[in-house]
Specification:
Layout: E1 17-22, E2 24-29, E3 47-48, E4 53-55, E5 66-73, H1 79-87, E6 94-97, E7 101-106, E8 109-114, E9 119-124, H2 137-150, E10 159-164, E11 168-177, E12 180-192, E13 197-203, E14 206-215, H3 218-222, E15 236-248, E16 251-262, E17 267-273, E18 275-276
Parallel strand pairs: 4-15
Antiparallel strand pairs: 1-17, 2-10, 3-4, 5-14, 5-16, 6-7, 7-8, 8-9, 9-13, 10-11, 11-12, 12-13, 14-18, 15-16, 16-17
């Protein structure tokens, strides 16, 4: 899957590789006043393959050994808990429930609370209240932190990642699990360029270790990257790769996270599942 827009997935989909592109991607660690880019491991003799991928770092051919895997502890919200969560976002006027979720409606927005994965999703219907453009990426992070804090949601994270295009910012709060960055159930907020909130996702998820698994090597994961559209002369120069956690097949499991630049200087990202069960 290859898309030229903001990252929208929260990695709740069952695929072997998830790839996205975006205009700009920046990183800022929790407590850091400035943004920092991910460190690159540069190889003096970059390589590539016939699928249109090139890389600027050493592709490790050794696997990472055994890595912990985690099962999500599902504690479904009852109506009262879901209602109280929704009240933190909107003035509730209507309510709907099906087997999947509780859905609350108001003139100022909509809140959907998933019954299985404890996901709270908010869409804002209110008119824009901010007219001045926000000052930059750190200001966007500050707005996102304040939004969750004002609604009494705690944020435990190591890194706030800022994705933006010409119209929107998206802030992803990434935590750490077993010494790997954890992209499974990362809390997220999207706003326009003036700081007006568009949507948000917050997860009340806990997990238990269920064992460990062997992993593919980085080189093996590279060979699993999906082919690009060579007819359109699409190419990607990968600049970084790291082992992280994603959520897939009901398990929080390892995946390789490739980053780089696609055609026309678009930022490219791809997750390739690394677990060998």
């Amino acid at each position: 899957m290859y898309r030229g827009r903001l990252l929208k997935s929260v990695l709740l989909i069952a695929v072997s590789a998830v790839c996205v592109t975006a205009a700009v991607i920046l990183f800022a660690r929790n407590g850091n006043n400035g943004g920092t880019r991910a460190a690159l491991s540069i190889n003096e003799t970059p390589g590539g393959n016939a699928n249109g991928y090139y890389y600027d770092f050493v592709l490790d051919t050794q696997n990472r050994g055994n890595v912990n895997c985690y099962m999500v502890k599902y504690k479904p919200n009852d109506y009262e808990a879901a209602y109280n969560y929704a009240l933190r976002f909107i003035d509730i006027a209507e309510y709907y429930e099906d087997d999947r979720a509780y859905i609350f409606y108001g003139s100022d927005g909509e809140v959907t609370i998933d019954k299985s994965i404890n996901q709270i999703h908010y869409d804002n219907y209110s008119s824009a209240v901010n007219n001045e453009p926000i000052s930059g990426d750190q200001a966007a992070i500050d707005i996102a932190q304040a939004f969750f804090r004002e609604r009494m949601f705690q944020l435990f994270y190591e890194e706030a990642q800022v994705y933006r295009d010409d119209a929107r910012y998206q802030i992803l709060f990434v935590s750490r699990l077993s010494n790997l960055k954890n992209y499974a159930f990362a809390n997220r907020l999207e706003m326009d360029m003036r700081g007006n909130i568009i949507s948000a996702d917050y997860f009340t998820v806990q997990s238990d270790k269920v064992g460990d698994c062997k992993t593919l090597s980085m080189a093996e994961a590279f060979d699993l990257l999906p082919p690009l559209s060579l007819d359109n002369e699409e190419t990607v120069r990968l600049q970084n790769c790291q082992l992280v956690y994603i959520y897939d097949e009901s398990i929080i499991q390892p995946a390789y996270y490739f980053q780089g630049l696609a055609t026309e200087d678009r930022t490219f990202e791809c997750y390739v599942k690394a677990a060998v069960f």
